[in-house]
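REVIEWER CHECKLIST
Item 1: Sequence provided? yes
Item 2: Single chain? yes
Item 3: Sequence as submitted:
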Amino acid sequence: MPANYSIWGVWVLAALLAAPAAAQQAPPTSASRSYTIFFRGTPIGREQLTVRPDATGITISGESRMALPVNFLTRHAEIRYRTDWTPESFVLDASIDMADLMLRTTFANGTATSEGTNAGRPIQATQPMQSRTLILADLFFGAYEALGRLFVDFGTGGTFHAFSGPGTDVPFRVLNTATERMQAGTSTFNVRRYELLFTRPDGDININLSTDEAGGLIRVSVPVQGIDVIREDVATSTARTQIFSNPGDEAVVIPSVGFNLGATITRPKASAAAGASPGSPGSGGPEGPPLPGPPILPTRFPAVVLLSDSGANDRDGYAAGVPIVGQLAGAMADAGFLSVRYDKRGTGQSGGRAESATLSDFADDASVVVKWLQARKDVDPKRIAVLGHGEGAWVALLAAGRDNRIAAVVALAAPSTTGAELVLEQQLSTLDRLNVSPGERQEKIALQKKIHSAVVSGTGWEGVPPEMRRQADTPWFQSLLAFDPAKVIRNVRQPMLFLHGQIDRQIPVEHVERIANLARTTSKSKSVEVVTVRGANHLLVPAVTGEAAEYGTLPSRNVSPDVTTAITGWLSKTSQTIK
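Item 4: Structure as written out by the authors:
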């Protein structure tokens, strides 16, 4: 959670934003809505929001219950703003893991005064308010309603300041804004999306906010934490945000066993799909200049199934502001390939149960898509490749080892170790950045290893905090820890391309040669190639340091052309050898 754990208890990332009185707007209309709270695609709670305007300002109130990763019950939360959007009061009556929290903060004359109790301990604090501030409490996600409406009224420029409870001040700003289309059933409507960057002492954090055109709250997402809060009328399998689109995109439904997968096909552009060789009509070359007339399209296209990384559950593979899979689909189309990308089971427009899904289940879904493509008249059934990013690379390898209908595999940023080793490696990297004491470091590592053992064996949870068990004791995490690419690669016969960003800090570049060597020495494949892209991070985007903390300030949100050129070049060469 984007929470600040301080002497005041569990404080969520809150902010106070005062707008100039000269820009007052008409009061917003009343609204009452319900929201579903998701953690890594699994529903963990619900929130009810009420917005009431009157002649003197606006009141945002609600109640919520959340079970994971922190047991949190909000009996009543209420935020009051004056007509000029300066804050007037904030009231919270809640309990955190059975400990009561009562807080009342009033705002007047540039000062915030708080009083209440936290687990029986008194709260009393007074502090100056920064200018350009507004109340936002993540454990009362409805607070973001005010931020969305204020952006509509006053714009998004400049630096704001977040009040995260008594004694704190966190600057934040809007990095990007975009207008998107939301699809609910067969209807679509405009959505405004804001990417926010909060500069906290323990590291920057990005939060994505989606609103309707009037500023009404639709969705709050914290990608790095796996938290999504979505308005219930668009939180079903019939709704999705059209975050990214390419020319030639078409929404489709792919039947699976017991449920459907919501997907998008991207068809090749005519110029790339002509498939003409030098000297053929319409191609130019040594026989002369191009002849007039439309391009000659192949009857059947080679195809690619695109699989996203962990945490990127939507079909566009959206991570830290980059629609990785959506952009790759466009690159495939430019090179003459038909591609399919889809929402993971239990999310977006795909059915099934996300909470029980494993890596093996995800591989089964990929095979379902391959089989569906083979039946299409516009696809060459012998030239269907799978391409996966991060965790998706593992899923691609697993599917290829089981399914001979897959002709080739592209693995982007693929880990070379077991899942358990990978998690520990990433934990050590995080501890290095936090500069914790040797004793604390050893305690955290020992606890992580204990959790791993308990997840795999099903026993030994004694001494593990309940909230950590609830977060870790899932079929997905169990399958991740047990996954061993060395065992999976043995069964892969298809040509393989392993591509890695040189400055990837999430899955360091050392992994690419290790996993490629596994493929060369143990697999049944006769073709294994490696590409390392200079200056690319884990998102496959040009970067400077490659660290996750840099994601919010990347100047480009586009997958590196060196990445797409390497992929499409290899796929084109490989597909020509398949008969």
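Item 5: Key structural point noted by reviewer: Residues 1-28, 271-291 have pLDDT under 50 and may be disordered.
Item 6: Recommendation: ____
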